[in-house]
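Task: fold both queries, return C-alpha cells.
Query 1:
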Amino acid sequence: MFNNTKIAKAVRLAVVFGVSSVTTMAANAQDVQANEDEEVIQVTGSRIARSELSQPTPVVTLEARDIQKFGTPDLGSILSELPAIGAGDSLIGNNGDNDVAGTSSADLRSLGASRTLVLVNGKRHVAGNPGEATVDLSTIPAGLIERVEVITGGASAIYGSDAVSGVINVILKKDYDGFDFNVTGAKSTEGVNSRNHTISILAGTDLEDGNVTFFASYDRIGEVLATDIRQYDNWGTVINPLNTGEDDGIADRLRVTNVMSELIHANGVINPFGGAAGLWVFDDAGNPLRQVERENTSSFAFGNFPDGCDYCFSPENYENYSPEVEKVNLSSTLTYDITDNITFNGDVKFVRSDIKQQFQPSFRFGNISINVEDNAFLDPTLRQTLLDAGQNTVSMAKFFDELGNRSADNRRELFRYTAGFNGAFTLSETDFDWELYYVYGKTTNTRNTLNDLIPSNFASAVDSVIDPATGEAVCRSQLASAQGEGYEDPAKINPAECVAFNPFGQSSSQAARDFVSADVTRKDEITQEFIGGTLVFDSSEFFELPGGPVGIATGFEYREETSGSTTDELTKGGFLTSAATPDSYGEYDVSEFFIEVSLPLLSGVAFAHELTLDGAFRSADYSHAGTAEAWKVGLMYAPFEDLRIRGTLGEAVRAPNITEAFDPLSPGFANVNDPCDVDNITDDADRIANCAALGIPSGFEANDNVSVDLLSGGNANLESEESESLTIGAVWTPSYIEDFSLTLDYYDIEITDAITFVSAQNVVDNCVDATGGLDQGFCSQVDRDPVTNDISLVRSGYLNAAALNTKGIEAQARYVTGLGAVNLPGEVTMNLLVNKLLELEEFEFQDRPDEINVEDGEVGDPEWQVRFGADYQLDDLTVSWSSRMIDRSFTLDISPTGDTPEDTSPAFVGTIITHDLGFSYQVSDTIAVNAGIRNLTDKLAPGYITNALYDLVGRRAYAGINISL
C-alpha cells in the first residue's frame, strides 16, 4: 500500500549491512507535505497512525535482509548483538539451566527479560517458560520476519504490563503472492563445532478478496561443547604467593589456566577432606594412584596444575557452550475482505523444538562412605595401606560419569492462533478505524533431566561385601550375615533389587548403574488467551488545533494466563539429588482499558515547524495483584524542518508473574555463611549488638560446612513493580546534506518495588544488619538450633524489595550517497550506532541505598558499544562490511563495597573489535545468493571470559540461496 510513498522510500534507504542497519525510524522519515492524499503508517510505540514516522519515543528497526547476515536462525541471538539488549538470556546465555534450555529471550537495557514485552504483529505472545511471561524468540522463525521494531523505555501505557524497559514488536510477512525456497547455513572455519542450517518454504496466493500464505521451516543448530572453544583452558583464579596484604600494589589473586580439583574425579578420590593414608585416586580400571599435588590454591576444592592433571575434575569437560536445537515451524495466514470495510485476519502456527544440552553428572563430594575392611571392590594393597593408617572407614568423592551427564533432553511445543476483524466506518462526518481480535496460545514442555542419582540406593549399592557362598560382590542389604545388629537398608526405591556398585574407576556394572540412577521428568503447560479491541479516530469534525486535528486511540483487553508444572513421583518424593519439588499451578486474569491522544499544537509556523504533544493512559485490574496504572507524555518539537527535539516521560508497570505469585512452598538446601560467626561479625557495624540480642555468645564459631534447610515459594501479596522512564533527544536531518541523519537520545529508567527473590544468605544477613535493633521481619524467617545456635532453617521467597536504575546516551549517524561525484558507479550507505552506558545499578533492598551493586562497566554491560556498517550497492550486487566494538570491561565487582583492581589480575577484558564481510547478488529474476564471513579477523575474548555478549566461537562462514517464483 505504501510502496511509493516518501515514507516508504525513507525506510528502504535505511537498509544497511547487519546490525548497522538498525535505524532510528524517526531520524529517517522525511517531511510529508500536508494534503488530503497524505498517507499514514503505524509503527511500534503508538496506536495512532501518523503522516510522519517521527514520534517522541525512539524506535529502531531491523529489516529482513539484515537478519540473514547474522548467520543464525535464532532471533534472540541476533537481537542480543544490539547495544540496547543484553545477552544473558540468549540461546548461549541460557546454557546453564535446564528450565530454559534451548530458549532465547531479549533483555532490553539489561533490566531482565521479564521486563521486556515481546509482541508479534502488535499482539502479545504466549510465554516459553513455565511461570513467566517471557517469550521464547526462537519460536519466531527468522525467515518469516519482515522487520523487528524495538522501542526502548517504558511503554506500559501503550501495551500493558511487562513493557518496563521497552517493547520488541516482530512484524511477520503476510499477504504474500508467490513461492520462496530458502536454504541457509553457517559453520566455523576454525574447527570449532559450531554450525547451523535452515530450509524454509514460503508460499502464498491472492484470492479474489484476500490472501492465504503458508510457511514451513526446519532449523538445526549444532551443539558446541565447552571443550570446543579454543581459548578455554580451565581458567580460574589462584592466590598470588607474592601477595603481602591489602593495598600493597600486588595482585591478591591471579588468573591462570589449568585450575582443577584434585579432590574429586569421575574415577573416585579417597580422603578428599584429609586422612592419615593421604589422597588417592583411581585409573579407569580401578587401580589406585597417589593423587598429584596442586601448585597454587584457588579454594579448598580447586587448585592450579600447570603441567596438567590426568585425574582431576574440570567443569569444562561436561558443559555446553551452546545446546543442540532441532526445530520445525509450520504456520499459515489468511486475510479476507468480507466487505469493502471489514477484513478478517487470522494466523495459526505450530512449533516443535527438540533440545539437547549438557550438564555435569551427578556427584557426591566426600559423602560417600567406604567400609575399608568389607568393600568388595577396593584394591587389596590400598585396603592394607588404609588399615595400617588406622582408617577403617574413609570418605570418597566422585563424579558419576558412568551414569552419563545430567543432560537435558527436552521437547517444547507451541501452538498459537489469532483471529480478528478490522475495518473502518463513518459516523456523521468522523472516520473510525477499528479492530477486534482474539488470541490463544499454548506452550507444552517435556523437560527430561537424564541420569540423576538416587542417593539412598547408591548408599546401599556402594556398601558392598563378598558373599562367602558365591565369592561374588553383593550389597550388604542382600546378605543377612554381613548386616550386624541394628542394620537398616538405606535404599528407598526397590531395595530388594540392589546390585553392588563398584565406585573405583569406571568398572560398575550396567545393572548397578540402573539401580542407582533415574531420569527426572517435568511437564509444563502454559496458556494465554485474550480478546481485545481498538478504536482510532480524530477530532476533525468538531475542532482542530493549530497543527491539525487531535488523534485519539482507545481500546480494551481481557486476558487470562495459566501455568502449571507436574513432576515425576521420584522427584516429588525427594528421592533424587535435587530437593523435593511439588507440582505447581497458577493463573490470573486482567481487564484493561487504555486511551492515547496526539495533540498537534502547532505546525508550519515560524519556529514551530511541528509541535505535538502525546499522551497515553492505561488502567489494569489484575485478579492477583490489584489495580495498576501506567501513563506516558511525549513531546515532539521541530523549531525548523531540519531539527526535531523529542522527549517522553512515563510510568510503567510489571505485574508479578505466576512463579512469583503462586509458586508452592518447596523444600531445598542453601549454603549460608553465618553473619554471627566470629569471622563475619565485624563485616557490618550492627552485627555485634544484634547477634548478642539473639543470644549468641561472643566468639561464636558456626558450623558453615553443611547446607541448611530452605523453604521457599511464591508470595500472593506481591504488588506490581513501577518504573519511571525519561527520554530526551534530538533528530537532525539537514536539508543541505541529502540522505543524512543524526540522532542523539538520553534515557533514564528507575524501577521501584522491583520483585526479587531474596536469597537465604540475604535473609540471615538482614536479620542482624538492621540499624537500631533486629529486623524482626527477617529474623522470623530464620530458625537456629537452641543448643548450638547454628542456623537450621531459612524461609525465603519473593518480595517487592528491590530497585534498579539505568541511564545512558544513544547516538546514530546515517548517510546514503551515490559515488558519481568521484566518477564511480554505485551507491554507499553508512551507519554509525553508539551507546554510552552511564549507569546501571541494582539495589537488592531499595530501603538500603548504601548497599548498591554497580553493573555499568562490568563484563556484559560495557560503558561503550559501537557499531559501524557500510554497504556498497552496484546494480544487483551488494557488498557489506560492519564492525562492532565492545569497550574494555571489568571482570570484578566495581561496586563501592565490591572489589578493587588489586583483588584479581587481570581485572578486566580489553576492548574487543570484530569485523564482518558479506555480499548478496541477484543472479536472475528468480535466484539470489548471499554469503559472508563473520568475525573476519578471528578476534576472541580471553579464555576466562564466558559472557554471552562476546563472540567466543570466532571466524565462521555463512551462505544462502533464495529461489523465488
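Query 1 returned. Query 2:
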Amino acid sequence: MSTPSSGALSFLHKEHITAEPGFNRWRVPPASIAIHLCIGSVYAWSVFNPPLTRELGVVASSADDWSLSSVVWIFSVAIVFLGLAAAFAGKWLEEVGPRMVGVVAALLWGGGFIVGSFGISSHQLWLVYLGYGVLGGCGLGLGYVSPVSTLIRWFPDRRGMATGMAIMGFGGGAMIAAPVKGWLLDLYETAPTYLGARDAVQTVVENGRVFAETAQGKIEVVIASAAQAAEFGGEAGAYVVGTGNTGAAQTFMTLGIVYFVVMILAAFQYRVPAKNWKPEGWEPKPAASGLVTQNDVHIDQALKTPQFWQLWVMLCFNVTAGIGVIGVAKTMMSEIFGSVMPLVATAAFASTYVLMISVFNMIGRFFWASASDYIGRKATYMCFFVLGTALYLSIPYFASAAAANPSLVYLMGFYLATMLIFSMYGGGFATIPAYLADMFGTMHVGGIHGRLLTAWSTAGVLGPLAITSLRQMSVTSAVQDLAAKVDPAAFAAKFGAPVAQLDQLVAAKTVTIAKLMEIAPAGTVDPTPSLYNTTMYCMAALLAVAFFANLFMRPVKEHHHHDDPELQAVPGE
C-alpha cells in the first residue's frame, strides 16, 4: 500500500512534514496523547450495552430489540480489527509517515461512529458492526501505532517516557469517555409515550409480544417496572414501543464528529525530525546490557528474528495474565470480601475499586515506561515477570485467609497486589515500543510495533477463554465435592430432586455453591474463595514462560541489519 508524495494529499506525506530548525519537540506528545485519549474510549464500550438492548422499548427491552449477547461482540470485533489494522498497515505507516496515518485514523474512528449512528437509528445491527467494529477498529489500530515511531525519533534520549505518555492516554481514555458518554445519553434521551399503570391498561399477548387495546387499535407496548421507569422520571406501567429515544444514535453522531475534529487537529501537529537530528548535547550511549542497537532492521526482516517472537510471547502472556485478573477482580472483591466484611467492602467501595483499576492501569503506563529509560527495557520486563508471578501467587492466599479470618490486612494485601498487577499490565503496553526500538532500531519501529500488536488480539481471545473455562472447572469440582458431603435426604428436601440429578439441577441454576452451603455439615469450608486459585496459578505460569523469553533475549545478529546506509536514520523510513 503506497501513497505518492505529490498530489492532492502530498501535504500529508512524511516528506512534507519535516520539522524546521528550532521546532519544539514537546509539541508532538500532546498530539499523540490527544489521539490516544480519543481511541482509548473503546474501553468504555459497556456504557452503550444497556441503551442498545432497549433501543425500541427505551424503558425496557421490546421483542425486536437487540439481545445483550449480540451487542457485546461489537467491542470484540473492534479489538480484533485493531490488531489486524496495526499489523497489515504497519509498513504503509513507515512509507507515508504519521500525519497521513493519523488523518486516516480520524476518518475511520470518527466515521465509524457516524456509520454506527445510522445503524442504530435505522435499527440495522450490521451497520453498527461495520461502523464501530470494522471501520472503527481499523481506526483504533492506525491511531494506536501512528505516534510511536515519531515519538521514539524525537526522544531518542527518553524513548520509554515518550511512548509511555502517549499510550498512557489510551489507558485513561475510558476514564474520560465513560462519564461523557453517560452525560450525552442523558442529554439526548426522551421517554416513550406512557399509556398508564399496568392494571389500568387492557393488554393482550400475541406471539410473546404485549399489545395494548386502544381506540386506534392494538399498539405494541413494554411493561416497565418502577425502577426502570424511574430512570426516565416516569411511573411503572405500559409504554408504547418506538416512541421514545435512548439517545444512543445521537451520542454516536456527536462523538464521531468530536473525535474526528480532535484527531485531525492532533494529526496536523505531527512533524518528523530532520535527517541526523538529535537533541542538543545528547550523544547515543549503548546500554550496559548491549541490547540497544545503533543499526536498523527492516520490517520484513524483523519477523525472521527470534527476538521478535520472544517479544511477541512476552507481550501476549503479560496481557493475557492481566486480563485474567481484570476479568475476575471485581467479582472476587464482591464475592469474598463483600460477604465476610460487608461494612467495609460496600457497593461504594467496589465502585472505587473499579475506578482505581483504570487509574493504576494509566499511571503504570507512564511510570514503568519512564523507569525503563533508567534501568533498561530487559530489567523492566524482569520486574513484570518476577514481581508479577509472586503477586499472582499471593492472590489465592489473601482470598483464602480473608475467608477463614476476616481482617483488613488481607483485604489491603489483595487490593495492593491487584493494583500493582494492573500497573504492570499497562506498563507492558507502554514499554514494548521502546524495547522494539532498542532491538531493531528506529527505521521501521512503528510498523514492527503494529505487527507485534497481533499478540494483543491473541491475548484478547486467550484471556477470557482461560478465565471462563478454568473457573467453570473449579465451580463444577466444588459443587460435586459439596454434594458428596451433603445428606441425600436433606438434598432432596432442599431441591426437590435426588442427588443423581445433580448435573441437570446445576445446568438449570437450581443448585449453586451458596445453596449447598446452607445444608452442608457444620464445619464445611466454603469453596468460593478457592474458585479463582487455578486461574491465578495458570496466569503465574504464563508469566514464568515469558520470564524465560526475556531472560534469553540477545542482540539481533548482524546479518539481519539493514545494509543500505542511505536509509539509516532517515526520518520516517
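Both queries returned. Flag for query 2: The first strand starts at residue 194 and ends at 196.
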